[in-house]
Amino acid sequence: MEKDGDLDTFLRAFEKACRQYRLPTDEWARYLTPGLRGKALEAFAALPQEQDGDYEAIKQALIAKYQLTPEVYRRKFRTLQRGPHDSYSDVVHGLGTHFDQWTQGLSVTTFPQLRDLMIKDQFFHLCPAEVRQFVMDREPKDVTKAAQIDDAYEANRRSEVRKPVTTSWRGGKPATNASIPASQHTRGPGPVANSTRPTTEPRKCYTCNQTGHLSPSCPTKQKNTPAKAPGPNAAVLLVGGVVGRVCDNVQHVTVGGHVATGLKDTGAERTLIRPDLAAPEEIIPGKTLTVSGIGGISCPLPMARVFIDWGAGSGVKEVGLSDNLPTDVLLGTDLGRLVAYYV
Predict the structure, then answer these.
(1) pLDDT tens-digit profile of 125-143?
(2) I want to staple 57 with a disulfide (CB 3.0 to 4.6 A). Which of 32, 51, 137, 187 is the partner?
(3) DSSP code per residue over 259-305
């Protein structure tokens, strides 16, 4: 094994060689250990002495050291691409190998287990990034349990953002007309009897300082608000800062098989990447994304469907392609929860 070699390929080749020479499994360990290098050798040295001859214990220690979890093989299965020197038969072989390692790592041996695994994987693909991460951290045994955790997550978030109802001092229905003076409303819940309330002036708009309406419905504000860029895929791109300055919102991002630099921008509704990060077969023919910037300037951008791992989540996303980016990747709010400098 090379010092920085592929442990997975090495173990599969080693086990195949042992079967070819018909070596008993209880002798595999003493043939394996002389060929270990680098981190693999460190993992073996850390094992207790009573496990020196246990091949399965050594193998599990190596897998843990290299973090070859079922999730890693799932990502390899979902993101495998054909290389310039690979045949289609090579691609099929690679897909089969990653799929077997994915399912074997989760002890999936029956068709019902395989069915549940595939439905659960597609279910996670449909969930927002923050919801998917929340559910996966709890390691649900099946897709039904995953859906229950998802429903509980949504229910708890709805109860947190629910606003308290302000009732009228007369005890009637909540007032919904914004033009009702503040003197007709209570500051606390429930009716108040036999109390003397101070007289206050009607509420004024913060924008024009006039009565009769509030700031959200101010005619002056609506008149001065620029129209949004046309098109169903309109997005907002607001990037600021000093060129070359290190920003706290810069983080590492994996796009396909490339490790790139990403910038978290809360003003970007959609994620954009540089064109050289997308393979030709990942570009979506005929589909564009209309992006509007400061001053209402808008332009259509080509789109691609790529795999992105942004730390707080991962998945196949449709992104825009642009050369005019401050970093390799502009992380938009469509990804949900992101990992910033402070995490």
Answers:
(1) 888 888 888 888 888 888 8
(2) 51
(3) EEEEEE-TT-SS-EE-GGGS-GGGEEEEEEEEEE-GGG-EEEEEEEE
